[in-house]
């Protein structure tokens, strides 16, 4: 079990609530690597002693860090530091780069493939094209804090993005490139989430055995002219979560 070497203890004289101070102190241990990815953190009793605060306050801080995707609780075992995790929920239309940045993760992208191919039936239906129309296919490995999060395969009409296969080799964010180079302003997107499995082709890249359960996310993005992007993402289920708040 990882122990605490040094951190900022909550100070009752400060204006910030004790739970917030505790949360920031524990977050710092995770973000600076004092608590390594996958390590078990001290139990609640130990944290109460180390921080000098009540169990209720400790639980408040731990719950916030769990909801932020930094910790995971395992019944009967304890609490552990998560690997880089994307927590998806109700949000606006964002790129992967923006989503990662909002979670405090360092985004990374490895372009695996960029070429023009004929549209399959699924791609043609999604983009309102004819079967076989040329589309730009971009296949990318997406990283968070240098750890693989998923593999995304995007298809875009070549008729609208003639030089995209070449432009993509220099890009970090596809949406930033589309906005700057082609004047695309996304207005909405439709997403479908389903359970799938890691393919043999993706296994080594995503660092999981073939057949491992994964999230498969299909997105069709639109601008004022209609659908411009159809992307299928295979996301590591241990590093990508979907959370919702339901109201009655």
TrEMBL record:
Keywords: DNA-binding, Transcription, Transcription regulation
PROSITE patterns named in the record: HTH_GNTR
Gene Ontology terms for molecular function: DNA binding; DNA-binding transcription factor activity
SMART domains associated with the record: HTH_GNTR, UTRA
Superkingdom of origin organism: Bacteria
GO terms classed as biological process: negative regulation of DNA-templated transcription
InterPro entries on file: Bact_HTH_transcr_reg, Chorismate_lyase_/UTRA_dom_sf, Tscrpt_reg_HTH_GntR, UTRA, WH-like_DNA-bd_sf, WH_DNA-bd_sf
PANTHER family given in the database record: MANNOSYL-D-GLYCERATE TRANSPORT/METABOLISM SYSTEM REPRESSOR MNGR-RELATED, MANNOSYL-D-GLYCERATE TRANSPORT_METABOLISM SYSTEM REPRESSOR MNGR-RELATED
Name of the protein in its database record: GntR family transcriptional regulator
Native organism taxonomy: Bacteria, Pseudomonadati, Pseudomonadota, Alphaproteobacteria, Hyphomicrobiales
């Amino acid at each position: 079990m990882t122990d605490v070497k040094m951190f900022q203890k909550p100070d009752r004289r400060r204006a910030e609530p004790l739970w917030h101070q505790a949360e920031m102190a524990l977050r710092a241990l995770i973000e600076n690597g004092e608590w390594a990815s996958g390590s078990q953190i001290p139990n609640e009793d130990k944290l109460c002693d180390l921080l000098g605060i009540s169990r209720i306050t400790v639980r408040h801080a731990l719950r916030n860090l769990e909801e932020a995707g930094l910790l995971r609780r395992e019944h009967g075992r304890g609490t552990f530091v998560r690997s880089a995790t994307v927590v998806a929920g109700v949000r606006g239309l964002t790129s992967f780069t923006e989503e990662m940045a909002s979670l405090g993760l360092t985004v990374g992208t490895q372009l695996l493939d960029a070429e023009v191919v004929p549209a399959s039936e699924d791609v043609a239906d999604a983009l309102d094209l004819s079967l076989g129309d040329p589309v730009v296919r971009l296949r990318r490995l997406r990283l968070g804090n240098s750890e693989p999060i998923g593999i995304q395969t995007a298809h875009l009409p070549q008729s609208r993005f003639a030089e995209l296969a070449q432009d993509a080799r220099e890009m970090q964010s596809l949406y930033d490139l589309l906005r700057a180079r082609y004047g695309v302003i996304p207005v909405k997107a439709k997403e479908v989430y389903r359970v799938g499995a890691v393919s043999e082709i993706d296994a080594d890249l995503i660092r999981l055995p073939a057949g491992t359960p994964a999230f498969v996310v299909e997105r069709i993005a639109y601008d004022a002219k209609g659908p411009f992007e159809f992307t299928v993402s295979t996301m590591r289920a241990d590093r990508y979560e979907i959370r919702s708040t339901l109201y009655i």
